[in-house]
Protein backbone atom coordinates (compact mmCIF):
# COMPACT_ATOMS: atom_id res chain seq x y z
CA UNK A 1 0.00 0.00 0.00
CA UNK A 2 1.53 3.31 -1.04
CA UNK A 3 -1.32 5.79 -0.69
CA UNK A 4 -0.23 8.63 1.62
CA UNK A 5 -3.81 9.74 2.36
CA UNK A 6 -4.83 6.42 3.90
CA UNK A 7 -4.67 5.92 7.66
CA UNK A 8 -5.75 3.18 10.07
CA UNK A 9 -9.04 3.92 11.79
CA UNK A 10 -9.72 0.88 13.97
CA UNK A 11 -8.02 -1.69 16.13
CA UNK A 12 -8.66 -5.34 16.83
CA UNK A 13 -11.04 -6.81 19.39
CA UNK A 14 -8.45 -9.61 19.70
CA UNK A 15 -5.41 -7.65 20.98
CA UNK A 16 -3.36 -10.76 21.72
CA UNK A 17 -3.50 -12.09 18.16
CA UNK A 18 -2.95 -10.68 14.66
CA UNK A 19 -6.02 -8.83 13.47
CA UNK A 20 -7.39 -7.05 10.45
CA UNK A 21 -6.55 -3.42 9.80
CA UNK A 22 -9.16 -0.93 8.59
CA UNK A 23 -7.86 1.93 6.46
CA UNK A 24 -9.97 5.01 5.71
CA UNK A 25 -9.03 6.13 2.19
CA UNK A 26 -10.36 9.51 1.05
CA UNK A 27 -8.09 10.23 -1.91
CA UNK A 28 -10.39 9.17 -4.73
CA UNK A 29 -12.47 11.89 -6.40
CA UNK A 30 -14.81 10.60 -9.10
CA UNK A 31 -15.29 12.51 -12.33
CA UNK A 32 -18.47 10.68 -13.45
CA UNK A 33 -20.07 10.97 -10.01
CA UNK A 34 -18.73 14.50 -9.45
CA UNK A 35 -17.92 13.82 -5.81
CA UNK A 36 -15.22 12.42 -3.53
CA UNK A 37 -15.66 8.76 -2.67
CA UNK A 38 -14.78 7.47 0.78
CA UNK A 39 -13.42 3.94 1.00
CA UNK A 40 -12.84 1.72 4.00
CA UNK A 41 -10.23 -0.90 3.12
CA UNK A 42 -9.99 -3.95 5.39
CA UNK A 43 -6.57 -5.59 5.15
CA UNK A 44 -5.95 -9.16 6.37
CA UNK A 45 -3.56 -9.84 9.27
CA UNK A 46 -0.76 -11.00 6.95
CA UNK A 47 -1.23 -8.22 4.40
CA UNK A 48 2.35 -6.93 4.62
CA UNK A 49 3.94 -10.37 4.40
CA UNK A 50 1.50 -12.08 2.05
CA UNK A 51 1.35 -12.29 -1.75
CA UNK A 52 0.95 -9.26 -3.99
CA UNK A 53 -2.20 -10.57 -5.69
CA UNK A 54 -4.71 -11.10 -2.91
CA UNK A 55 -8.35 -11.84 -3.74
CA UNK A 56 -10.66 -8.85 -3.41
CA UNK A 57 -14.25 -8.16 -2.34
CA UNK A 58 -15.88 -4.89 -3.38
CA UNK A 59 -18.81 -3.97 -1.15
CA UNK A 60 -21.52 -1.35 -1.70
CA UNK A 61 -22.83 0.67 1.28
CA UNK A 62 -19.44 0.57 2.94
CA UNK A 63 -20.57 3.13 5.51
CA UNK A 64 -22.45 0.30 7.24
CA UNK A 65 -19.35 -1.68 8.26
CA UNK A 66 -19.85 -1.00 12.00
CA UNK A 67 -23.46 -2.25 12.00
CA UNK A 68 -22.39 -5.27 9.95
CA UNK A 69 -19.66 -6.03 12.53
CA UNK A 70 -17.36 -6.91 9.67
CA UNK A 71 -14.07 -6.43 11.50
CA UNK A 72 -15.18 -8.79 14.28
CA UNK A 73 -16.48 -11.33 11.77
CA UNK A 74 -13.29 -11.26 9.75
CA UNK A 75 -11.07 -11.51 12.84
CA UNK A 76 -13.02 -14.57 13.93
CA UNK A 77 -12.92 -16.25 10.51
CA UNK A 78 -9.20 -15.59 10.10
CA UNK A 79 -8.46 -17.01 13.55
CA UNK A 80 -10.47 -20.12 12.67
CA UNK A 81 -8.58 -20.30 9.35
CA UNK A 82 -11.99 -20.53 7.72
CA UNK A 83 -11.10 -18.18 4.84
CA UNK A 84 -7.91 -17.22 3.02
CA UNK A 85 -6.55 -13.69 3.19
CA UNK A 86 -8.31 -11.16 0.97
CA UNK A 87 -8.76 -7.39 0.74
CA UNK A 88 -12.19 -5.88 1.32
CA UNK A 89 -12.97 -2.57 -0.40
CA UNK A 90 -16.04 -0.99 1.23
CA UNK A 91 -17.41 1.86 -0.89
CA UNK A 92 -19.35 4.50 1.03
CA UNK A 93 -22.61 5.40 -0.70
CA UNK A 94 -23.36 8.84 -2.06
CA UNK A 95 -26.80 9.40 -3.59
CA UNK A 96 -27.62 5.71 -3.30
CA UNK A 97 -31.19 6.02 -4.60
CA UNK A 98 -29.84 7.39 -7.88
CA UNK A 99 -26.39 5.75 -8.08
CA UNK A 100 -27.55 2.22 -7.30
CA UNK A 101 -29.74 0.29 -9.71
CA UNK A 102 -29.33 -1.15 -13.20
CA UNK A 103 -26.89 0.73 -15.40
CA UNK A 104 -28.91 0.61 -18.61
CA UNK A 105 -32.28 1.69 -17.23
CA UNK A 106 -33.77 3.65 -14.33
CA UNK A 107 -36.94 2.39 -12.70
CA UNK A 108 -40.43 3.74 -13.37
CA UNK A 109 -39.89 6.64 -10.95
CA UNK A 110 -36.49 7.45 -12.49
CA UNK A 111 -34.66 6.12 -9.48
CA UNK A 112 -31.26 4.77 -10.48
CA UNK A 113 -30.73 7.58 -13.00
CA UNK A 114 -27.00 7.67 -12.13
CA UNK A 115 -26.44 3.90 -12.05
CA UNK A 116 -24.65 4.04 -15.39
CA UNK A 117 -22.33 6.71 -14.00
CA UNK A 118 -21.71 4.54 -10.93
CA UNK A 119 -20.76 1.61 -13.14
CA UNK A 120 -18.43 3.91 -15.07
CA UNK A 121 -16.85 4.98 -11.77
CA UNK A 122 -16.33 1.38 -10.68
CA UNK A 123 -14.77 0.22 -13.94
CA UNK A 124 -12.70 3.25 -14.97
CA UNK A 125 -11.73 4.80 -11.63
CA UNK A 126 -12.15 2.49 -8.64
CA UNK A 127 -10.62 -0.69 -10.08
CA UNK A 128 -7.49 1.05 -11.43
CA UNK A 129 -7.11 3.00 -8.18
CA UNK A 130 -7.34 -0.07 -5.93
CA UNK A 131 -5.03 -2.08 -8.17
CA UNK A 132 -2.44 0.71 -8.04
CA UNK A 133 -2.48 1.31 -4.29
CA UNK A 134 -3.26 -2.10 -2.78
CA UNK A 135 -1.88 -5.59 -3.25
CA UNK A 136 -4.83 -7.20 -4.97
CA UNK A 137 -5.43 -9.46 -7.92
CA UNK A 138 -6.56 -8.31 -11.34
CA UNK A 139 -8.01 -11.73 -12.12
CA UNK A 140 -11.83 -11.86 -12.34
CA UNK A 141 -11.93 -15.39 -10.91
CA UNK A 142 -10.77 -13.99 -7.57
CA UNK A 143 -12.77 -10.74 -7.63
CA UNK A 144 -16.17 -10.52 -5.93
CA UNK A 145 -18.78 -7.75 -5.75
CA UNK A 146 -21.54 -7.66 -3.12
CA UNK A 147 -24.17 -5.37 -1.70
CA UNK A 148 -27.35 -4.96 0.31
CA UNK A 149 -30.86 -4.04 -0.87
CA UNK A 150 -30.39 -1.50 -3.72
CA UNK A 151 -26.65 -1.99 -3.35
CA UNK A 152 -27.24 -5.72 -3.91
CA UNK A 153 -29.12 -5.01 -7.12
CA UNK A 154 -26.21 -2.80 -8.19
CA UNK A 155 -23.68 -5.53 -7.35
CA UNK A 156 -25.60 -8.17 -9.31
CA UNK A 157 -25.91 -5.83 -12.30
CA UNK A 158 -22.16 -5.10 -12.27
CA UNK A 159 -21.16 -8.76 -12.10
CA UNK A 160 -23.73 -9.95 -14.65
CA UNK A 161 -22.63 -7.41 -17.24
CA UNK A 162 -18.89 -7.41 -16.51
CA UNK A 163 -17.56 -10.96 -16.12
CA UNK A 164 -14.26 -9.65 -17.46
CA UNK A 165 -13.79 -8.04 -14.03
CA UNK A 166 -15.79 -10.12 -11.52
CA UNK A 167 -16.76 -13.77 -11.14
CA UNK A 168 -19.06 -13.78 -8.10
CA UNK A 169 -21.98 -11.66 -6.91
CA UNK A 170 -23.23 -11.50 -3.34
CA UNK A 171 -26.74 -10.10 -2.89
CA UNK A 172 -28.26 -9.53 0.56
CA UNK A 173 -32.00 -8.76 0.36
CA UNK A 174 -31.63 -7.55 -3.21
CA UNK A 175 -34.07 -5.02 -4.67
CA UNK A 176 -35.10 -7.27 -7.52
CA UNK A 177 -38.54 -5.63 -7.54
CA UNK A 178 -36.88 -2.84 -9.63
CA UNK A 179 -39.43 -2.35 -12.39
CA UNK A 180 -40.48 -0.36 -15.44
CA UNK A 181 -44.08 0.20 -14.33
CA UNK A 182 -45.89 1.01 -11.11
CA UNK A 183 -48.35 -1.45 -9.61
CA UNK A 184 -51.21 0.87 -10.59
CA UNK A 185 -50.02 1.24 -14.20
CA UNK A 186 -50.58 -2.23 -15.60
CA UNK A 187 -47.56 -3.84 -13.95
CA UNK A 188 -46.78 -7.50 -14.59
CA UNK A 189 -43.83 -9.59 -13.47
CA UNK A 190 -42.37 -9.11 -16.96
CA UNK A 191 -41.72 -5.47 -16.00
CA UNK A 192 -38.98 -6.38 -13.50
CA UNK A 193 -35.83 -4.90 -15.00
CA UNK A 194 -33.10 -7.23 -13.73
CA UNK A 195 -35.10 -10.33 -14.62
CA UNK A 196 -35.46 -9.03 -18.17
CA UNK A 197 -31.76 -8.21 -18.41
CA UNK A 198 -30.87 -11.76 -17.41
CA UNK A 199 -33.51 -13.23 -19.71
CA UNK A 200 -32.27 -11.29 -22.73
CA UNK A 201 -28.58 -11.30 -21.81
CA UNK A 202 -25.74 -13.65 -22.59
CA UNK A 203 -24.71 -15.98 -19.80
CA UNK A 204 -21.07 -16.34 -18.83
CA UNK A 205 -20.80 -19.79 -17.28
CA UNK A 206 -17.90 -18.73 -15.08
CA UNK A 207 -20.19 -16.57 -12.93
CA UNK A 208 -21.51 -17.66 -9.53
CA UNK A 209 -24.23 -16.10 -7.40
CA UNK A 210 -24.98 -15.99 -3.66
CA UNK A 211 -28.43 -14.60 -2.84
CA UNK A 212 -30.14 -14.09 0.52
CA UNK A 213 -33.57 -13.04 1.72
CA UNK A 214 -35.24 -12.84 5.11
CA UNK A 215 -38.76 -14.01 5.76
CA UNK A 216 -39.46 -10.62 7.38
CA UNK A 217 -37.69 -8.54 4.73
CA UNK A 218 -41.04 -6.86 4.06
CA UNK A 219 -44.78 -7.52 4.29
CA UNK A 220 -45.85 -6.81 0.68
CA UNK A 221 -47.35 -9.69 -1.28
CA UNK A 222 -48.58 -8.22 -4.55
CA UNK A 223 -49.78 -11.53 -6.03
CA UNK A 224 -51.39 -12.72 -2.77
CA UNK A 225 -49.65 -16.08 -2.90
CA UNK A 226 -48.65 -16.03 0.76
CA UNK A 227 -44.97 -15.34 -0.06
CA UNK A 228 -43.52 -11.86 0.40
CA UNK A 229 -42.39 -10.08 -2.76
CA UNK A 230 -38.67 -10.01 -1.92
CA UNK A 231 -38.59 -13.81 -1.75
CA UNK A 232 -40.70 -14.21 -4.90
CA UNK A 233 -38.52 -11.74 -6.82
CA UNK A 234 -35.30 -13.45 -5.74
CA UNK A 235 -36.56 -16.97 -6.50
CA UNK A 236 -37.87 -15.80 -9.88
CA UNK A 237 -34.44 -14.33 -10.68
CA UNK A 238 -32.84 -17.64 -9.73
CA UNK A 239 -35.28 -19.33 -12.12
CA UNK A 240 -34.08 -16.99 -14.89
CA UNK A 241 -30.49 -17.93 -14.07
CA UNK A 242 -31.38 -21.61 -14.21
CA UNK A 243 -32.89 -21.12 -17.66
CA UNK A 244 -29.51 -19.73 -18.68
CA UNK A 245 -27.81 -22.92 -17.56
CA UNK A 246 -26.71 -22.00 -14.03
CA UNK A 247 -27.34 -24.64 -11.37
CA UNK A 248 -28.23 -24.66 -7.68
CA UNK A 249 -25.29 -25.78 -5.59
CA UNK A 250 -22.76 -25.48 -8.37
CA UNK A 251 -23.35 -21.88 -9.47
CA UNK A 252 -26.09 -20.56 -7.17
CA UNK A 253 -26.41 -20.52 -3.40
CA UNK A 254 -29.64 -19.23 -1.86
CA UNK A 255 -29.93 -18.51 1.85
CA UNK A 256 -33.33 -17.76 3.38
CA UNK A 257 -33.20 -16.48 6.96
CA UNK A 258 -36.23 -17.37 9.07
CA UNK A 259 -37.23 -14.19 10.89
CA UNK A 260 -34.57 -12.24 9.00
CA UNK A 261 -35.27 -8.56 8.47
CA UNK A 262 -34.16 -5.94 5.97
CA UNK A 263 -31.30 -4.62 8.08
CA UNK A 264 -27.54 -4.93 8.68
CA UNK A 265 -28.07 -7.05 11.77
CA UNK A 266 -29.64 -9.84 9.70
CA UNK A 267 -27.04 -9.45 6.96
CA UNK A 268 -24.27 -9.64 9.57
CA UNK A 269 -25.74 -12.94 10.77
CA UNK A 270 -25.24 -14.57 7.35
CA UNK A 271 -22.02 -12.76 6.42
CA UNK A 272 -19.79 -15.70 7.51
CA UNK A 273 -21.72 -18.02 5.18
CA UNK A 274 -21.22 -15.58 2.30
CA UNK A 275 -17.50 -15.09 2.97
CA UNK A 276 -16.87 -18.82 3.20
CA UNK A 277 -18.75 -19.28 -0.08
CA UNK A 278 -16.87 -16.44 -1.78
CA UNK A 279 -13.37 -17.28 -0.61
CA UNK A 280 -13.44 -20.79 0.86
CA UNK A 281 -11.09 -23.49 -0.39
CA UNK A 282 -13.80 -25.11 -2.50
CA UNK A 283 -14.30 -21.88 -4.44
UniProtKB/TrEMBL annotation:
InterPro entries to which the protein is assigned, alphabetical: AB_hydrolase_fold, Esterase-like, Mycobacterial_A85_antigen
Pfam families according to UniProt: Esterase (PF00756)
Coiled-coil positions: none
Protein name: Enterochelin esterase
Top-level taxonomy: Bacteria, Pseudomonadati, Bacteroidota, Cytophagia, Cytophagales
Amino acid sequence: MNNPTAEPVSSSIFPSKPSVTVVRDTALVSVPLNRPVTLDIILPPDYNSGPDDLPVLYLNDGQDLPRLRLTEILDSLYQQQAIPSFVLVAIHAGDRIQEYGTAVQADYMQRGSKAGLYTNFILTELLPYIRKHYRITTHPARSVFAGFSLGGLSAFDLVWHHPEHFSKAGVFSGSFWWRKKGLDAGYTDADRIMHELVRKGKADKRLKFWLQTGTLDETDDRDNDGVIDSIDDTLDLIAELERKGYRWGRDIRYVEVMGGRHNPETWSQVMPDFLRWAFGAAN
